[in-house]
Amino acid sequence: MPPAVRFGVNYTPSEGWFHHWLDFDLDSVRADLDSIAALGLDHVRVFPLWPYFQPNRTLIRPRAVEQLVALADAAAERGLDVNVDGLQGHLSSFDFLPAWTRTWHRRNLFTDPDVLDGQETLLRTLAAALADRPNFIGMTLGNEVNQFSAGPHPDPDRATPDEIDSWLGRMLAACEEGAPGRLHLHAEYDATWYQDDQPFTPGQAARHGAVTAVHSWVFNGTAQRYGRTSVPSEHHAAWLVELSKAWAGDPHRPVWLQEVGAPAPLVPPEHAAAFTEATVANALDCPDLWGITWWCSHDVARSLADFPELEYGLGLLTNDRKPKDTALVLERAARGPSSTPAGRGTALVVPADPAVRSRCAPGGPVFEAFFRLVADGARPTAVLDTRAGDPEHLAARGITETVTPDQVLEGGTRS
After folding, report:
1. 74, 92, 186, 277: which is deepest, by most CB within 10 A?
2. What is the pLDDT of residues 153-212, one digit of tens each?
3. How far apart are CA 203 and CA 410, in angstroms?
4. H or E segment and range at residue 85
5. What span, in angstroms and rounded, lies between the C-alpha atoms of 300 and 113?
């Protein structure tokens, strides 16, 4: 039997947001973790802010590392495993990059030799500090670091796909050196799957690291175009899970739905529970799902300024640690019986060329075709056009028929 799907939450401290590292209060952290564990969840993803942990390229603050370990130990006491994002990076519309990479010290995050040395050292140090903790899942390189590599970022660190490939390999190797055998991975926002000029490619996402991570947000045009109760909105997370499988080398590579949430006002608070229930149920219908990690644990305090409005209310719990209706939905799923979804025999053919990946984005013909199939009652997956005629590949994935977007949208014959 495959392992049960993991259920967790991205830990947003109820006091001080991620700035809590500046005034670390272990009692407050413990109270937050108590409220998370009470929901029956089994892991948290935590975010040490890069400038606070490595304010100088050759200085990693020992006290900050000790606090991270203390948080992990407090989580273990409550039955929670911990995944750590190393390079923060970017969170909730704010960039957190150390001064030694910006302005007067402007250096490329993905290609500068000194920056790479510093990043490598930080990742190895954090991984090594947690390597002997049984509840340490592993490292994620950073949160959606691909947003630094291209537009719409206002000051991108440009790199080629080959340079990103090298960066990923080197950083993941540093994590493995620090904590051998753990689940080390990288994670990007959906420009990897949808943006033609994004140097982080789908192939990299699906082949580097121990699992593939997808981050699903319907404010990317899905909810705006199709509506909050539409098939595309309620199945968007499942789409990214299945789309990612097209590029994987392992036919049963695990996929981690590492970020997903119910963003207001596109999903109004009174409808957030229904959206959560549908999103979780549809994701659980995807074979080889490693886990679902909701964004996020606690609301952002209204006393903190300048966040986008949607960020303040994304928590499963309020600032005083009271569960919302969305928390109860996730709790039911986490405590419910586990089951193994059936395989998906119908595969939609998607382009292997990353230069046309926008065809898979909201409004694109591949996206439209996938959800036409879903609306018609099918349970499709995805296969690259370069593999659609490979019987061995199709058999390994349990695919019994393939269909092109044109055939779906024009009502043609499947093969």
Report:
1. 186
2. 999 999 999 999 999 999 999 999 999 999 999 999 999 999 999 999 999 999 999 999
3. 29
4. strand 81-87
5. 36
Residue 87: phi and psi, rounded to 5, are -115, 90
Q: Is residue 1 part of a domain?
A: no
Assigned domain for 415 exists: no
> pTM for this structure?
0.97
Bond preceding residue 296 cis, omega within 30 of 0 = yes
Ranges in the chain, pLDDT < 70: 1-2, 412-415
What's the whole-number average pLDDT of the chain? 97
Which of 340, 350, 46, 45 lies closest to 206, judged by CA?
350
| Domain range enclosing 52 | 6-335
Give residue 174's pLDDT: 98
Q: Are 404 and 368 in contact (CB under 8 A)?
A: no
pLDDT of residue 133: 98
Are residues 129 and 191 both part of a single domain? yes
Instruction: Indicate if 330 and 223 belong to the same structural domain.
Output: yes
* Helices 62-77 and 26-37: angle between axes, nearest 10 degrees: 30
* Residue environment code for 272-300, b if the CB has 16+ CB neighbours within 10 A, otherwise e: bbbbbbbbbebbbbbbbbbbbbbbbbbbb
Instruction: Check if the beta carbon of residue 341 is closer than 8 Å to that of residue 285.
Output: yes
